[in-house]
């Protein structure tokens, strides 16, 4: 998104404000480790959950954590945006394979979207966030 960002695994949480088409979003990057789940109750009124999936790995732990997350009381109305990352790598799972592996079609009580992306180039990020903004306006 026209900015070079150096990343490392989230320990605890990070907060960042982003503006897209004059809409301001407060983004909370909350570590997904089970030990941090107890801190989620401080983040009420969450409209969307964004999950970034490493499409080069078999993601059974991600699938388990995703369903635990969606079952959380404070997230029962949240939409779900999944970024299938690392689509620039030849051996990665496609969006369809990632969706199938995560069993996304079984999610009936949350609006969801899966978006191919490459975090290195930014490809797909704006399209995913645009989907999120379109859902936000409907809510």
Present the secondary structure layout.
Elements (H helix, E strand, L loop, with lengths): L12 E8 L2 E8 L17 E7 L5 H11 L8 E7 L9 H8 L9 E5 L8 H14 L1
Parallel strand pairs: 3-4, 4-5
Antiparallel strand pairs: 1-2
Describe the fold and architecture.
The protein has 139 residues and is of the alpha/beta class. 24% of the residues lie in helices and 25% in strands. It contains three helices and five strands, in the order βββαβαβα. The longest helix is centred in the last third of the chain and has 14 residues, at 125-138. It starts with 12 loop residues before the first strand and ends with a helix. 19% of the residues are buried. The mean pLDDT is 82.
What does this entry show, briefly?
The protein has 139 residues and is an alpha/beta fold.
What's the N-to-C terminus distance? 26 Å
Order of helices and strands: EEEHEHEH
**Number of DSSP helices?**
3
Q: How confident overall, as mean pLDDT?
A: 82
Q: Characterize the main sheet.
A: 3 strands, parallel
Structural class: alpha/beta
Shape: globular
